[in-house]
TrEMBL record:
SUPFAM superfamilies: Thiolase-like. Residues 247-337 form the Beta-ketoacyl-[acyl-carrier-protein] synthase III C-terminal domain. Residues 108-172 form the Beta-ketoacyl-[acyl-carrier-protein] synthase III N-terminal domain. InterPro entries: ACP_syn_III_C, ACP_syn_III_N, Thiolase-like. One of its GO terms (molecular function) is 3-oxoacyl-[acyl-carrier-protein] synthase activity. It comes from the Bacteria. Pfam families: ACP_syn_III (PF08545), ACP_syn_III_C (PF08541). This is 3-oxoacyl-ACP synthase. It comes from Embleya hyalina. GO terms for biological process: fatty acid biosynthetic process; secondary metabolite biosynthetic process. PANTHER family: 3-OXOACYL-[ACYL-CARRIER-PROTEIN] SYNTHASE 3, BETA-KETOACYL-[ACYL-CARRIER-PROTEIN] SYNTHASE III.
Amino acid sequence: MRFDGIHLAGIGTHLPDRVSTEDAVAAGRYPAAERESSGLLSIGDAGDLPAPDMAIRAANAALKQADHEAAEICKLFHSTVHYQGPDVWSAPHYIVRNTVDRPISAIEVRHGCLGIIESLELGANHLLADPSRTAVLLTTSDNFNTPTVDRWTVSKLFVLADGAGAIVLSTRPGFARLVATGARSIPRMEELHRGGEQMFPPGITRGEPLDLERRRTYWARQWAAGSPPPMGHLGDLVAEVVRETVAEAELTMDDITRVAHVSFAQDALRDTFLDPIGIDEARGTWEFVRRTGHAGPSDHVAGLEHLWTTGAVRTGDHVLLLGGTPGFEVACAIVRITEDAAGGR
């Protein structure tokens, strides 16, 4: 979907203190062989800081940069992966209360690691639907320091990290313009991420830990017994989504200066996201995300902020935000930088 007149007026993050993967190995939490193969150097660990409080810090930074009055913010979209606080409670409204403090609608977006990309599209369409609307606030945050998650072993594809990000999406010019978004899924692959687990009552309500490797092992056993897992070529899906979105933006991959992607182990990142669109780590954000870990949708916000504030992208450059989520779904967004960052190198 192509957009005109929608801008990124402010961006902010909260990236907590980092724990080195070397220290995690020494503490017996992360297998040395996996550390070596992953290429990951550190991850963000927020301790006991609640995820919504991290979102508030990121949001206030984005609002300050955007220089919008609170009255101009007409909606909040808050993206999450993990639990935010008490059951039957609204983290989005808590964030609104502690930022713009207005009686606006506040919605939680449960779209896995694509939450912020989906929020860009939702927010843009919300603004375009009514010319009187000026800006929406997009936030995302997660803290995986909970008893049912072992961030170091939950998956061999990534190490879960904590963090938060925020974007003020506006009809007024900012530091970047939203050019286009795109998404596509392979619905039959939802079963791959279910991995034989019963649907009700959910495992978390029975105290079962999150274990994506156990689900992968389930399908390995099924395959060995003659029942192959639901198949799909993820690289082809990534290539298709990016090709369609870039074409809709009336660009080519040569016009894409940098790619802000999720934080995966190096080989998985190459195989799933980089090689299918013909770019290497230097054109992505590998050197940044290998130090932050996989913080869900915050990866995209932090990557974009890093590229812009360091001067890695400047006015006229295009940044592709790219990721995937269980389902299996791939999505991307293209933004054009319209203003250099103050002090960017």
